[in-house]
Amino acid sequence: MVTQRVLITGGAGQVATLLRPRLVRPGRVLRLLDVRPPAEHPPTGGTAAPAEEIVSGSVTDLDAMVEACRDVDAIVHLGGQSREAGVEEVLRLNAYGTYCVLEAARRAGVRRVVLASSNHAAGFQGRDLAPDGDLPAAVPARPDTLYGWSKVAVEAAGQLYADRFGLDVICLRIGLWFPTPPGLRGLAMWLSPDDGARLVEACLATTGRGFRMVWGISRNTRRWWSLAEGEEIGYFPRDDAEEYAAQLVAEHGEPDFVGDPVLNRVGGQWCDVPLGESY
Ligand SMILES: NC(=O)c1ccc[n+]([C@@H]2O[C@H](COP(=O)([O-])OP(=O)(O)OC[C@H]3O[C@@H](n4cnc5c(N)ncnc54)[C@H](O)[C@@H]3O)[C@@H](O)[C@H]2O)c1
Q1: How much is the pTM?
Q2: What does the alpha-carbon distance between residue 82 and residue 233 come to, in Å, rounded to a whole number?
Q3: In this predicted model, what pLDDT tens digit does every residue of 122-157 receive, in sequence order?
Q4: DSSP readout, 109-160?
Q5: What topology is assigned to 4-272 in CATH?
Q6: pLDDT tens digits, residue range 15-58?
Q7: φ and ψ at 118, to 5 degrees?
Q8: Which atom of ligand 1 approaches the CA of 151 most closely?
Q9: Ligand 1 mutation target, pool 55, 77, 78, 98, most atoms within 8 A of CB
């Protein structure tokens, strides 16, 4: 018997592929929506294959999104442009796409939506705001790219639908959600695959209502972003990028997350990439 159906947009993407085997629960169905087919059998790490429904469609197609929301309990919205790109593309896929997701949720009666925002929505914020190493998750937006700007629009749309229609919307300001920390910045900002799944489970289970903003990071020894907002919704990360520190430091040298003018910004090197260009 289906007890919970979760719609995952961007279901073929990197993060969704990490999530799929980790979100397996009795009675839960994952409905994966993407413009391209997801990998047939993501590594399951020994767990049973998840119950899944595959939907081919675009987050920018409102009618298709309303249909995809049928009998859905919650949405995890990951689909869209995940890197810097031209202005029309990031606004169409991320800003307009998120509008379609939220509007479809409202029309279909889906009460809970988890939105993939990004650290790049606040990329120009700096370590100076967090001398104690706990930059609040809701630090004001300060995008570092057009992509980051589109994620500010994602967050604002989430706030709008929470205020207007009472949806429960949790915005994840994701750090670096990868199998292992990709480079020195990852020592502070990595979100491990298992912690990523813990974070999504907390978003699905919390009894907290309304709009929330949470950093998507692990319990990294060198973190300087707050875990408090995550703890409020029941997210208690267990992994630590420090496990990879020896290897990363041997390759790239010792990082300085206080004095280094690149590493002490939320968005790191993204603050310097050419605007609007794919790279
Ligand atoms: N991976 C990270 O470290 C990280 C960091 C910050 C934010 N994020 C955000 O998390 C989300 C997932 O990231 P990812 O690394 O899996 O990215 P990804 O690029 O691997 O996956 C995005 C998926 O969205 C799909 N997509 C593109 N256009 C679409 C459309 N019109 N309709 C439906 N699907 C469409 C793509 O086909 C792709 O499968 C993205 O929103 C990204 O911006 C990720």
Answers
A1: 0.97
A2: 25
A3: 999 999 998 888 999 999 999 999 999 999 999 999
A4: T--EEEEEEEGGGGTT-BGGG-TTS-B-TTPPP--SSHHHHHHHHHHHHHHH
A5: Rossmann fold (3.40.50)
A6: 999 999 999 999 999 999 999 999 986 665 555 566 999 999 99
A7: -155, 155
A8: 43
A9: 78
